[in-house]
Write a structure and sequence with these properties.
Layout lengths: L3 H12 L4 E3 L6 E5 L3 H11 L9 E2 L6 H4 E2 L3 H10 L4 E7 L14 E5 L4 H10 L3 E2 L14 H8 L5 E2 L12 E4 L6 E4 L5 H8 L4 E2 L20 E4 L5 H10 L4 E4 L13 E2 L6 H17 L4 E4 L7 H13 L2
Parallel strand pairs: 1-8, 3-6, 5-9, 10-11, 12-15, 13-14, 13-15
Antiparallel strand pairs: 1-2, 2-7, 3-7, 4-5, 5-6, 9-10
Helix pairs in contact: 1-5, 9-10
């Protein structure tokens, strides 16, 4: 686990234009000074991120919504008051003096978030400015939820990796865009649609599919090397037998007790007990499926009746594409 002295080293690295990985409650982020164009360029290069794909900027305090954003609407302030620190990103008009255009692919808007992790908060408080930070993995691949995942994925491309233990939530933040005439959710995550609607006081559209200019919103994303296939619990047996007959090695990820009997030859990954644990371990299980050398991972999604269930289903759907 990282210490205060490690945080000080990370702050110095950010100020020197280098990259720092740090934990949040959702996933680990790969951070660069959001006001330094050269540092942000390096961030995109190391990540392998397309230049037009925007990056979320992390800040220490809700008041920075008005410092890094401009003409911030009341709905954004209400959302920040209700959910920050936490797993919600708010898209507002960008202050070009505090966030360089490269962070947002040249767009006039920026996504801002105050994370809820003590190490992230300590880093951001000490740094003072905004830290542009996508997930700390190569673009399109499985997001990291431990410091070990970051080191395995990025190696020496990161100057400092702050270790805060496993991420508590395990899937990325919800993204809400309040810049249009009607607020919209661009990515499902740790805060649910109903919760957002309660705070904003009006219905919220979902714009999570198709060509959406938001982090993690591309159709193919969060993908392990193994082929991911979404199945109903009732279809697991038949699909597993078909894989075996075709000489392919299959695995299963599902809630405990959802599939009463496991077919022979199917590698069953450790089953999460509930939706919260499913979200918490999802990316770790994707990595385990790769480590097992599976050809196909069958996934029975949990119910999407709540925020985390919907977020898990969204991530699995994107991984399957």
């Amino acid at each position: 686990m990282s210490s205060e002295s490690d945080v000080a080293v990370a702050v110095d690295a950010l100020r020197a234009g280098e990259l720092v990985a740090f934990p949040t409650e959702t996933v680990y982020g790969l951070g660069a000074d959001a006001a330094n164009p050269e540092a942000v360029q390096r961030l995109f290069a190391v990540k392998g991120r397309p230049a037009d794909h925007p990056v979320i900027v992390h800040v220490a305090r809700p008041r920075q919504l008005d410092e890094l954003g401009r003409d911030v609407p009341d709905a954004a302030h209400r959302l920040a008051d209700a959910f920050w620190p936490g797993a919600l990103t708010i898209v507002v008009e960008r202050n070009p003096g505090r966030v360089v255009a490269r962070v947002t692919g040249g767009r006039a808007t920026v996504g801002l978030r105050v994370p809820d992790h003590p190490l992230a908060r300590a880093l951001l408080e000490a740094f003072g400015g905004g830290v542009a930070a996508p997930s700390a993995n190569r673009f399109g691949r499985v997001s990291p939820t431990t410091a070990q995942h970051v080191r395995a994925d990025l190696g020496d491309d990161v100057r400092v990796v702050l270790d805060g233990g496993p991420c508590r939530v395990g899937v990325e933040s919800t993204i809400v865009d309040v810049t249009g005439a009607e607020p919209a959710i661009l990515r499902l995550g740790g805060v649910g649609r109903a919760e957002v609607e309660r705070v904003v006081g009006r219905p919220i559209r979902l714009r999570t599919r198709g060509e959406v200019a938001a982090p993690g919103a591309r159709q193919s994303h969060y993908a392990p090397r193994v082929a991911v296939e979404v199945v109903d619990a009732s279809d697991v047996d038949a699909r597993a037998r078909a894989l075996t007959a075709a000489g392919r090695r299959g695995g299963l990820l599902a809630l405990a007790d959802v599939v009463p009997e496991y077919p022979d030859g199917l590698v069953v990954l450790d089953a999460p007990r509930d939706v919260e644990e499913f979200a918490h371990v999802l990316y770790d299980r994707f990595r385990a499926a790769d480590a097992c050398g599976l050809d196909v991972l069958l996934v029975v999604n949990p119910s999407d009746a709540d925020a985390l269930g919907a977020a898990v289903s969204d991530r699995v759907w994107r991984a399957s594409h």
